[in-house]
Q: What sequence folds into this?
């Protein structure tokens, strides 16, 4: 048995909560060049953390995510025009205090990165981007917005970002802030005082498929640790546990949320990834649009599907999918046991002919053809709430 | 968790316990801790031949697949069928009911090259120091 060698610590970047994670005894891994907690044995490990989010609440350090602020220059409108140019969703539809999922595309219609666009004000946007693509993204944004009247700032190191996620997340948050959270719908945000930290961004967003919030606090180590500890204290009565990137991955996979480098990349386009509803072809021109029009006319060659293993065996990232005859037809992008469903699930790219629900195909696992079938996605959808209407 | 004094250990974190010509093989407490929740185990059926240092099966956690290497050569006489439905036994009792296979040893002298419990404990202690340095 051997375990992946961890590169020398000095090569890895750390969030302000790194020392705290180590004190908690977290297992640390290299995630996109960052030294991050993958699971906390003190929380009961990955499966316990996953279930805590589905049934209660968990807290994640997601400070490795990047933050890019785009504001208008001298005249109004510059920031919106810039965001519209680099992002495929329609930011003109965003109200102040609203966010949406989107992506930045290459001229080929493939992905620079996916992104959450927040409209802070009429002329002020915050783009939250992935950790592994931070430098690439900021350079790309600067390069592609230079002809617009806007100011681009990299605020990635200014914030510690905590994700408080789960069915009881709202109960924890209500103890933490004076902001009226019942009025904050899914993918909306507000600013409020959190433990005396005034004007803290509190967004009803996340990457778990569960209700939850992401808060952005100043990145000083003492402040970050204080807020983390206060979140833990407030969540104690709801059984809150620290959660690592391990369950973040299984939670997002069950909810079919894309991960850069897996379901989306510079070789996969929007239609293949099935992200049509976040791509607004009817708005004014944006980078990638022309290629997407051509791709749509040409038709899909592969499409993202969800599969469930029928045979014993776990489909893993990059395993080959094949047909009954054993001919390769596609590839798994993310695969794992699903702690919520108790099944082995995966996302994979295959030709459209194999994409209908119920289609049987095979995953090659260590030389063995293991039977699987196409199932509806997302694999898991959270029950609709009645108290607060959830809008996606 | 204590490392049984009568077991021998590999650098790849397998253990082997010998009784006469028969041996039982499993993975160590350190290994199960590194892996996390074990969800799937694949080990050879009776009759399969193991060769020292060669991979003979896999243990999977939620997040990763790990190969298991044979601490010694021999022929499998029994594999732990319980693990098919309760792989978590590897987490809860790695040195006992979480065993993987029993086999007939080809050459018991091969075990001389393996670590005893104090040596293995020193080996993993050095690894943890390295990791937190």
A:
């Amino acid at each position: 048995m051997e375990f992946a060698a961890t590169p020398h610590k000095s090569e890895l970047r750390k969030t302000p909560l790194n020392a705290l994670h180590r004190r908690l005894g977290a297992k640390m891994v290299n995630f996109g060049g960052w030294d991050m907690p993958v699971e906390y044995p003190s929380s009961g490990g990955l499966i316990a953390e996953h279930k805590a989010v589905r049934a209660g609440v968990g807290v994640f350090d997601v400070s490795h995510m990047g933050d890019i602020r785009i504001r208008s220059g001298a005249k109004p409108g510059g920031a919106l025009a810039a965001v519209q140019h680099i992002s495929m969703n329609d930011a003109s539809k965003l109200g102040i205090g609203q966010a949406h999922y989107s992506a930045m595309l290459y001229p080929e219609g493939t992905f620079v990165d996916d992104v959450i666009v927040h409209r802070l004000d009429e002329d002020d946007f915050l783009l939250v981007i992935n950790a592994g693509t931070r430098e690439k993204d900021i350079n790309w944004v600067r390069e592609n917005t230079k002809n617009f009247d806007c100011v681009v700032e990299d605020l990635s190191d200014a914030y510690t970002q905590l994700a408080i996620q789960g069915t009881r997340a709202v109960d924890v948050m209500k103890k933490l802030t004076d902001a009226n959270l019942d009025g904050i719908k899914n993918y909306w945000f507000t600013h409020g005082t959190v433990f005396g930290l005034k004007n803290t961004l509190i967004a009803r967003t996340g990457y778990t498929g569960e209700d939850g919030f992401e808060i952005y606090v100043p990145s000083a180590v003492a402040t970050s640790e204080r807020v983390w500890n206060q979140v833990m204290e407030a969540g104690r009565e709801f059984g809150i546990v620290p959660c690592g990137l391990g369950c973040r991955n299984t939670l997002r996979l069950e909810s079919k949320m894309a991960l850069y480098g897996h379901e989306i990349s510079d070789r996969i386009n929007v239609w293949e990834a099935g992200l049509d509803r976040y791509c607004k072809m009817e708005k004014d021109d944006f980078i990638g649009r022309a290629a997407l029009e051509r791709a749509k006319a040409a038709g899909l060659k592969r499409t993202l599907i969800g599969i469930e293993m029928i045979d014993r065996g776990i489909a893993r990232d990059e395993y080959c999918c094949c047909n009954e005859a054993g001919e390769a037809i596609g590839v798994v992008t993310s695969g794992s046991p699903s702690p919520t469903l108790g099944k082995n699930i995966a996302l994979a790219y295959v030709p459209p002919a194999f994409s209908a629900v119920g289609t049987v195909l095979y995953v090659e696992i260590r030389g063995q053809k293991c039977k699987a079938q196409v199932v509806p996605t997302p694999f898991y959808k959270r029950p609709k709430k009645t108290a607060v209407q959830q809008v996606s | 968790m204590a490392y049984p004094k009568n077991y021998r250990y590999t650098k790849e974190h397998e253990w082997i316990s010998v009784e006469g010509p028969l041996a039982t093989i499993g993975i160590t407490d350190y290994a199960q801790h590194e892996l996390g929740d074990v969800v799937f185990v694949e080990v050879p059926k009776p009759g399969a031949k193991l060769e020292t240092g060669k991979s003979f099966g896999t243990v999977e956690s939620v997040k990763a697949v790990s190969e298991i290497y044979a601490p010694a050569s021999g022929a499998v006489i029994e594999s732990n069928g319980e693990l098919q439905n309760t792989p978590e036994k590897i987490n809860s009792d790695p040195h006992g009911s979480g065993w993987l296979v029993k086999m007939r040893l080809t050459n018991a002298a091969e075990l001389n090259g393996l670590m005893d419990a104090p040596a293995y404990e020193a080996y993993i202690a050095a690894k943890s120091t390295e990791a937190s340095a």
DSSP finds nine helices and 19 strands in chain A. The first strand of chain A starts at residue 27 and ends at 31. Chain A touches chain B through 25 residues (CB under 8 Å).
